[in-house]
Amino acid sequence: MITSTIPIQITDPINARILAVSEDKIQGFQRDPVGEVVRESGIDLAVVIERIQAMLRAGTIRRVRQTLMATNLAPGALVAWQVPADKLDAAFDYMFQQDPFSGHVVIRSADPATPGSNYKLWTTLKVPQGYSMQKHAEFLLGKTGAEHFRLMPAKRLFVLGVGHVRRRGMPIGSKADVSADAMDVNVVKLNDLEWRVLVALKREFEPDEIHENLWQPRADEAGIPLQTFYEVAEDLNQRKVIGRFSTFLEHVKPLADGQRVTRFNALFHWAVPPGREIEAGREVGRHHILTHAYWREGGPEFRNVNVMAVAHGTDRDVVLQHKAAIDEHLKGLGIPVSYTNVFWGGRSEIKPSEISPLAYRDWCHKVGLDPESMRSSDLPEQTGSA
Question: What are the structural domains, with CATH classification, of the chain?
Answer without folding.
Answer: 13-68+191-249 (1.10.10.2890)
